[in-house]
């Protein structure tokens, strides 16, 4: 069974970094130009930072779970192949 994993291109990585920078600048500009008290602006800024952090955390958790499942499946496939090899070696027919 071939193990094919695609690798993201440098252009895609640059695009995602650019999108993040634009979104962060837009959020910061929006918070700064908001007609609210300094404490309200601080609350929104902290909420925006926590949203970014939690997004990165959940992305990492999902990726780690996928990698864990992939390794578990490889182990299970190896066990199955070994069992089939043992059974076929014992089969007198």
From TrEMBL:
Signal peptide: none
One of the protein's GO biological processes: DNA damage response
Domain YiaAB two helix residue range list: 12-64
Superkingdom field: Bacteria
Keywords from the UniProt entry: Membrane, Transmembrane, Transmembrane helix
GO cellular component terms listed in the entry, alphabetical order: plasma membrane
Pfam families attached to this UniProt entry: YiaAB (PF05360)
Bilayer-crossing regions: 12-31, 43-62
Protein name, UniProt field: YiaAB two helix domain-containing protein
Species for this entry: Roseibium hamelinense
Lineage: Bacteria, Pseudomonadati, Pseudomonadota, Alphaproteobacteria, Hyphomicrobiales
């Amino acid at each position: 069974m071939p193990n094919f994993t695609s690798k993201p291109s440098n252009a895609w990585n640059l695009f995602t970094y650019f999108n993040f920078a634009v979104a962060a600048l837009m959020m910061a500009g929006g918070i700064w130009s908001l007609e609210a008290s300094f404490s309200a602006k601080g609350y929104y800024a902290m909420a925006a930072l926590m949203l970014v952090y939690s997004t990165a955390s959940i992305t990492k958790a999902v990726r780690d779970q996928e990698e864990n499942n992939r390794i578990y499946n490889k182990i299970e496939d190896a066990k199955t192949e070994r069992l089939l090899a043992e059974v076929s070696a014992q089969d007198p027919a």
